[in-house]
């Protein structure tokens, strides 16, 4: 088996919609010939920080080693200060941003559309894997 490139990925998501995050992780883990490191902050493993400024530092520290930031483009992104922060930090740190259109959703928040470095990716495993491989 050839040596596979390990991709470092941060998945931006809203904890109240963690099923989207969990599906994304399952797809990335299950993709053939695809190795990745999860730089995200899942609901099951929070940073354990309770002030806004320290949480911002913690999120930045999670995004910093990532090569790619995947933004789940649910309409909840319009109402999440943390997703806004993650997008702005990813841009500031010059990370590749891939916006994902959730299944069955016609509209995606402008902040996600404008931040994405590629055309929005459809909500399926192979589209997302292709987009990641297209950059790395």
Description:
The chain is an alpha/beta fold and 136 residues long. The protein has one domain (6-135): 3-Layer(aba) Sandwich (Rossmann fold). The protein is 40% helix and 15% strand. The protein has helices spanning 18-30, 52-63, 81-92, 110-115, 125-135, and strands spanning 6-12, 35-38, 68-72, 96-100. The protein has a four-stranded parallel β-sheet with strand order 2-1-3-4, with helices on both faces. Helix 2 (52-63) crosses helix 3 (81-92). The protein is globular.
Average pLDDT confidence is 87
Tally the structural domains: 1
CATH class call: Alpha Beta
Number of helices: 5
> In whole angstroms, how far apart are the ends?
19 Å
Q: What is the percent of helical residues? A: 25-40%
Q: What characterizes the major β-sheet?
A: 4 strands, parallel
Report the principal-axis shape. Answer: globular
Radius of gyration using CA atoms only: 14 Å
Low-confidence runs (pLDDT<50, min 5 residues)? Answer: none
CATH superfamily: Hypothetical protein MTH538
Spatial order of strands in the largest sheet: 2-1-3-4
CATH architecture descriptor name: 3-Layer(aba) Sandwich
By DSSP, the count of extended strands is 4
């Amino acid at each position: 088996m050839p040596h596979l490139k390990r991709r470092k990925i941060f998945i931006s998501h809203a904890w109240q919609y963690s099923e989207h995050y969990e599906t994304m992780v399952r797809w990335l883990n299950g993709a053939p010939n695809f190795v990745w490191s999860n730089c995200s902050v899942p609901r099951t493993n929070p940073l354990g920080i309770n002030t806004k400024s320290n949480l911002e530092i913690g999120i930045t520290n999670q995004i910093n080693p990532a090569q790619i930031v995947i933004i789940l483009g649910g309409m909840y992104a319009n109402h999440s200060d943390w997703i806004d922060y993650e997008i702005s930090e990813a841009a500031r740190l010059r990370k590749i941003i891939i916006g994902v259109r959730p299944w069955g959703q016609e509209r995606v928040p402008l902040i996600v559309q404008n931040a994405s470095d590629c055309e929005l990716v459809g909500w399926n495993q192979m589209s997302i894997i292709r987009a990641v491989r297209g950059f790395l």
